């Protein structure tokens, strides 16, 4: 690994814990705010989130797949609300001694919750096409850019995956680094990536519960996507994304195949 993949080795070795690099607990409060809000942006309240009830093992987990065949139809604001609430919403508060913690649907190192969710909306009933920030405390969408993103731009941001142009929405998971690094230093980079995976899987499973499809996106042009969302990448940057769609087909094998590619043969096993 060290010689063949030096960048990966550098990351792994420099975020390893050893007795000599253990960190003591910070004595000062975290300088990064626990939540991000765009106070001057118009806020669209989201309806109460009530995803369909499905059995986790027998239904949601077994039906999850990477859907690349999209119908292009809208999803509803209720469906988007359920996705955002179950993906990274606020479920309540918990008081432990002198500290107050928010309860959210994913585990987070130190209860610090460094992630922020942005919605690139293309076909969501009740809101304009554009870019939104999910505000979990009021459970609403803050309008950052009420302008439709050109199909060519959306595709190019995600490495030319043209079928994304008919996705209903792309939820971009971003990390505010300091919220976690403040306590854990470089090791926190691992924790942020783990948490993004937890949030993405929630989005995947709730998509199944709602009868929607999802497609996870780890490939994108980092600097371009950061600029599109209006982020300072040194403070906050995209780490993952999930396209949410209304599937074109219920056939599992066909649903996985990008349009224009020859049909695959299902051989068993879980796969993508």
Task: List its salient traits.
29% helix; seven-stranded antiparallel beta sheet; 20% strand; NADH Oxidase; 272 residues; 8 helices; two-stranded antiparallel ribbon; alpha+beta
Tell me, rounded to a whole number, the average pLDDT: 83
Structural class: alpha+beta
Number of domains: 1
Question: Helicity level, as a percent range?
Answer: 25-40%
Quick one: biggest sheet?
Answer: 7 strands, antiparallel
How is the largest sheet built, in terms of strand order? 1-6-5-4-7-9-8
How does the overall form come out from the CA principal axes? globular
Strand residues, percent: 15-25%
Kindly report the name of the CATH homologous superfamily.
NADH Oxidase
* Strand element count: 9
In CATH's first tier, which class applies? Alpha Beta
CATH architecture: 3-Layer(aba) Sandwich
Low-confidence stretches: 264-269
> Radius of gyration in whole Å, from Cα?
19 Å
Question: What is the helix tally?
Answer: 8
The string of secondary-structure elements, in order, is HEHHEEEEEHEHHEHEH
Compute the separation of the termini in Å: 25 Å
> At the third CATH level, what is the topology name?
NADH Oxidase
Textual characterization of the structure:
The chain is an alpha+beta fold. It has a single domain (52-256), classed as NADH Oxidase (3-Layer(aba) Sandwich). It contains eight helices and nine strands. The chain has helices spanning 6-14, 56-63, 77-88, 151-157, 177-184, 188-209, 222-229, 252-256, and strands at residues 43-45, 92-96, 99-103, 115-121, 130-135, 140-145, 169-176, 213-217, 236-245. Strands 1-6-5-4-7-9-8 form a seven-stranded antiparallel beta sheet, with helices on both faces. The protein has a two-stranded antiparallel ribbon with strand order 2-3. A hairpin with a 4-residue loop joins β5 and β6. α2 (56-63) crosses α6 (188-209) and α3 runs antiparallel to α6. It is globular. The protein starts with 5 loop residues before the first helix and ends in a 16-residue tail after the last helix. Residues 264-269 have low confidence and may be disordered.
């Amino acid at each position: 690994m060290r010689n063949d993949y030096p960048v990966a080795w550098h990351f792994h070795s420099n975020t390893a814990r050893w007795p000599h690099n253990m960190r003591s607990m910070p004595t000062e409060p975290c300088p990064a705010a626990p939540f991000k809000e765009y106070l001057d942006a118009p806020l669209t309240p989201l309806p109460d989130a009530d995803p369909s009830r499905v059995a986790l093992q027998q239904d949601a987990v077994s039906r999850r797949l990477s859907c690349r065949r999209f119908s292009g139809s809208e999803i509803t604001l209720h469906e988007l609300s359920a996705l955002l609430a179950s993906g990274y919403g606020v479920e309540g508060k918990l008081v432990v001694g002198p500290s107050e913690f928010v309860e959210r649907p994913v585990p987070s190192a130190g209860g610090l919750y460094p992630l922020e969710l942005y919605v690139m909306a293309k076909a969501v009933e009740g809101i304009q096409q554009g870019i939104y920030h999910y505000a979990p405390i009021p459970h609403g969408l803050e309008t950052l850019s009420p302008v439709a993103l050109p199909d060519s731009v959306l595709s190019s941001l995600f490495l030319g995956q043209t079928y994304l142009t008919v996705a209903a929405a792309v939820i971009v998971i971003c990390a505010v680094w300091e919220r976690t690094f403040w306590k854990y230093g470089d090791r926190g980079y691992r924790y942020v990536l783990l948490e993004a995976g937890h949030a993405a899987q929630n989005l995947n499973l709730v998509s199944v519960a709602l009868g929607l499809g999802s497609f996870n996106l780890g490939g994108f042009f980092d600097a371009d996507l950061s600029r599109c969302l209006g982020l300072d990448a040194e403070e906050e940057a995209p780490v993952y994304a999930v396209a949410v769609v209304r599937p074109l087909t219920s056939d599992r094998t066909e649903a996985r195949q990008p349009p224009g590619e020859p049909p695959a043969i299902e051989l068993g096993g879980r796969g993508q």
